[in-house]
Structure to design on (178 residues):
């Protein structure tokens, strides 16, 4: 159903018939006056002849005024915008650009070592670290921070050090008696 535009902006809701006044705010602002780059000036990733205006906050690419898409206070390049917009409809909540900066390996390390502060939490920490490792070991990494999978293994060390320490002390005590 396409809403009918009125002079006053008031419309009737098709479900409940209440009268509503609707304002549509532009979500994407685009500047169309891109400056030509000088020889020693940073240039746009997509237009090498245009001067750099902003940095994409998703991938870090330099973009010119033509390519700079401003989503509120965030600057996004066209490639990242399309990648995030490509998951529209039913799967809209899983848009890649929204969750790209979640560093699951850091969450696993925090859970793997954080249980020390409140020790009964280890009951939930062990399955949580295993779940994060299995589900997100191949998740997209951050564009800005170089990541590798070692943090997941560091989380396992955080979970295992105290039980291994207790077992080794018990073994040395037992071996000392025999």
């Amino acid at each position: 159903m396409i809403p009918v535009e009125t002079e006053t902006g008031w419309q009737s809701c098709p479900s409940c018939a209440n009268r509503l006044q609707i304002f549509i705010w532009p979500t994407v602002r685009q500047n169309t006056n891109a400056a030509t780059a000088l020889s020693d000036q940073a240039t746009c990733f997509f237009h090498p002849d245009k001067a750099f205006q902003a940095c994409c906050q998703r991938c870090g690419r330099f973009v010119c005024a033509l390519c700079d898409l401003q989503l509120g206070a965030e600057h996004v390049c066209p490639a990242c915008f399309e990648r995030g917009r490509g998951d529209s409809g039913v799967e809209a909540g899983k848009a890649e650009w929204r969750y790209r900066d979640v560093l699951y390996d850091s969450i696993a390390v925090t859970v793997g070592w954080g249980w020390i502060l409140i020790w009964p939490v280890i009951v939930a920490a062990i399955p949580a670290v295993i779940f994060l490792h299995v589900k997100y070991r191949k998740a997209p990494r951050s564009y800005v921070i170089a990541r590798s999978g070692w943090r997941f293994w560091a989380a396992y060390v955080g979970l295992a050090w105290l039980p291994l320490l207790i077992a080794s002390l018990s073994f040395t005590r037992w071996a000392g008696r025999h």
Remarks:
- Residues 150-177 form the longest helix (28 residues).
